[in-house]
């Protein structure tokens, strides 16, 4: 038998089968992981963009080093938004009060999946928003460092743009909190 042929009944099942049969707790935990992980990636990316320009521009104008560290702090805030959302979501995961062997048809299975999918979408929304926020703050922080090295009067003007870029992360966590408000795992039978 060649490796390309499959005699098993499992060969025709694809990713849709895997995704529809995954535990709601798995979806909830993946939402927590994506929210936290992608937020940290966004912060790291923004710090990398800002930091590399800051170090390069500080060669020409050493006075900008301490003043432009605020750009790094704005990038770090995106990681903190992810940590806050991960804590909120982790506190929503509850295990059922009764043993799994007693689960029957009267359990609210739709409620489990609703909570799992809701927590997954909430975490993914916050994570993706914080990647966008981290990169945009990093680009604005890079421009701020380079502009400040050329002309000190540009610092406050570009810093305002950076504050608006940081607001993306705040909007993301607000949307994530709204999404997660209705995500409650049932703990008893209906």
Automatic annotation (TrEMBL):
Residues 30-89, 121-178 form the V-ATPase proteolipid subunit C-like domain. One of its GO terms (cellular component) is membrane. Keywords: Hydrogen ion transport, Ion transport, Membrane, Transmembrane, Transmembrane helix, Transport. Gene3D superfamilies: lithium bound rotor ring of v- atpase. It is found in: Membrane. It comes from the Eukaryota. GO terms for biological process: proton transmembrane transport. It is a multi-pass membrane protein. The keyword Membrane applies. The chain crosses the membrane at residues 25-48, 69-91, 154-178. Belongs to the V-ATPase proteolipid subunit family. This is V-ATPase proteolipid subunit C-like domain-containing protein. It comes from Stephanodiscus triporus.
């Amino acid at each position: 038998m060649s490796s390309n042929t499959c005699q098993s009944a499992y060969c025709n099942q694809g990713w849709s089968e895997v995704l529809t049969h995954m535990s709601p707790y798995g979806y909830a935990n993946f939402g927590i992981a994506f929210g936290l992980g992608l937020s940290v990636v966004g912060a790291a990316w923004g710090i990398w963009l800002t930091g590399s320009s800051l170090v390069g521009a500080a060669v020409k104008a050493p006075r900008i080093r301490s003043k432009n560290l605020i750009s790094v702090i704005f990038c770090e805030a995106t990681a903190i938004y992810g940590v806050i959302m991960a804590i909120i979501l982790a506190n929503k995961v509850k295990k059922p009060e009764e043993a799994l062997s007693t689960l029957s048809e009267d359990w609210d299975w739709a409620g489990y999946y609703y909570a799992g999918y809701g927590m997954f979408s909430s975490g993914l929304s916050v994570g993706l928003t914080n990647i966008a926020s981290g990169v945009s703050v990093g680009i604005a922080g890079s421009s701020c460092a380079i502009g400040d090295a050329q002309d000190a009067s540009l610092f406050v003007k570009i810093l305002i743009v950076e504050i608006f870029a940081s607001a993306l992360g705040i909007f993301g966590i607000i949307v994530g909190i709204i999404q997660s408000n209705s995500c409650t795992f049932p703990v008893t039978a209906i």
